[in-house]
Amino acid sequence: MSDGGKQEGDGGKLFVGGAWVEPDGGCYEVTDPATEGTVGRAPEASPEQVRAACAAAREAFGPWSRTAPEERAAVLARAADIIRARLVPYAELAQAETGATTATARAMQVGVAAARFRRYARVEPAEWPVQPQINEAGPMGKAAVMGALAARRPVGVVACVTSYNNPWANPAGKIAPALAMGNTVVVKPAPQDPLSVYRMARALEEAGVPRGVVNVVSGRSVAVGEAAVESPDVDMVSFTGSTAVGQRIAEVCGRHMKRQLMELGGKGAALVLDDADLDSAVAGIGTTFSFYSGQICTAPTRVLAQRGVYGRLVDRLAGYARRLRIGDPREPDTVVGPVISAAHRDRVESYVELGCKEGAVVVTGGERPPLERGFYVAPTLLADCTNDLRVAREEIFGPVVVVIPFDEEDEGVALANDCDYGLIDYVWSADVARAFRVARQLRTGGVGVNTVGRNMEAPFGGFRKSGVGRDVGSYALHAYSEVQSIVWPG
What we know:
Blueprint: E1 14-16, E2 19-21, E3 27-31, E4 38-43, H1 47-66, H2 69-85, H3 87-98, H4 102-119, E5 127-135, E6 144-154, E7 157-161, H5 169-180, E8 184-188, H6 195-206, E9 214-216, H7 222-230, E10 236-240, H8 243-256, E11 259-263, E12 269-272, H9 278-285, H10 287-290, E13 302-306, H11 307-323, H12 342-358, E14 361-364, E15 380-383, H13 390-393, E16 400-406, H14 409-417, E17 424-428, H15 432-439, E18 446-449, E19 467-468, H16 474-479, E20 481-489
Parallel strand pairs: 7-8, 7-10, 8-9, 10-11, 12-13, 12-17, 13-16, 15-16, 17-18
Antiparallel strand pairs: 1-2, 3-4, 5-6, 6-20, 11-19, 14-15
């Protein structure tokens, strides 16, 4: 096995129909957000090449869907082994593309990707019995006991449009369950960091995935993604990204009755009740400042603090943020790396400026770190906010936390639910029964009780503008399948 260094398919070529193909649109440079240097060159596909990838996936679907689940699982297991064996060089590439810290790139990007391929290498029953029904004689036939079977069947060709904040875990979370179910895929990675996805395609190719089962096409032009979503060969679109883009994709899917799985924006509310363990709450909320530099839809960015702890919580969060080291993500003591691009840095900074104009108070942060190169944003805490401020309602996607006070428990719940999003909220309380009572009232796809940790078998997805559908664990197998019923007289 090679060391995962530069290989065919890493040098500006698309992966279409099992072949590495020269892009019609040439190549563009991928920028390291920490150094502003060039990481490599990524291919720019034409819409015609995207349609060719979709056609290749359609041709491969029949044979792959008829392959025994155990054989499909074996391919995924080999891919997991290859990715795990090359964790360090793969993580170095991910770090260069995204600006993630070394620990994050290794554990949460490449490590999670390997774990996801390993998870879906486990074959699960695709058919299960339904309770028999006794039918009396009538126009539909004689009296009979009707047996039934429900079965998951593959959807077909899945267009996987992935996010920039995790170019390993996010594509793996789509590709692995889709392939396990017998689907074929066309992956359109985010334009900021597509090189890691091509490296993943190389690992799958080495693992023995048949030609056309996995295809990767990239590009900065919106026409690339549009061609994949609109292709008549595509049966389903799995998208992770902004709500605005998700809405446009949903319009196309609706016109053509395509299945969709949407994991969109978030504005996670963290309710800190007056009996909470503040050390635990600060550590959890503080991940917004550090983890992916706040570029994660599950971040607890909107803190709702009960009056009894409001002042102490603001002080502790400010102290926590000030202690975080900002800088080169390759340095072992760095906690906060850059955001993905100069344009995104400007966007985050504009939100902080807007918050000040709206009346929020900058407790810490708010100024650009004094670094010569890189797209850095200082961890920023905005206090004395109200829920009607734009900084409290819109997804900033950066290391910015807003704090809103409330008095009674019911008021906190109402504030949390007064939001366009509903992906993951959080509750901190020393009284577990109280925390669960609050959690059950939150209109959100997930709730963390005294933790920001995840259970990777629990369903993941959002209410309202945070998405459509659920994945992760066995729920992903449902997401990438159609359910068929077979009925017979017993």
